[in-house]
Amino acid sequence: MKLLLRFPPDLHETPHTADVILETGARINIDRANVDAVQGEAVIEVPKEKEVQVAALFEQKGVEVRRLWRLIERDEERCVHCGACVSVCPTGVFAFDQSWQVSVEEQKCIRCSVCVKACPLGALACVE
Ligand code: SF4
Ligand code: SF4
Fold first, then answer.
1. CATH number of this structure's domain 2-68, picked from the four choices 1.10.8.60, 3.40.50.720, 3.30.70.260, 3.40.50.300
2. Neighbours of 108 (CB within 10 A)
């Protein structure tokens, strides 16, 4: 399960992610992080069996947690399978299949939004 974490401004001095890993023993994979001295946002992947415990602990520490059931959405009526998203996605979510249609492997998405900006037809959106 992927979680979106939003760190409020007053929490930047404490290593909350490290603390959660140590306290839960969860092998957390940080997919993407944009954290500076003022605030931050991160997408993490948590083993299913630790998801509830990890989310609760982050929340206890004042971090906003959102479960990402969906990651990226494609409007099938708009998509013309041009492949622009195939070339820009850093994690290989998109690929041409044997019939030159662009397939989507959503679980690889880290919600960086690069493909959303690159799609000439406006067919892609990060799911909120
Ligand atoms: S860039 Fe947009 S139109 Fe082109 S294949 Fe990807 S989703 Fe479809
Ligand atoms: S938001 Fe788009 S470009 Fe970024 S990882 Fe997800 S599918 Fe790839």
1. 3.30.70.260
2. 15
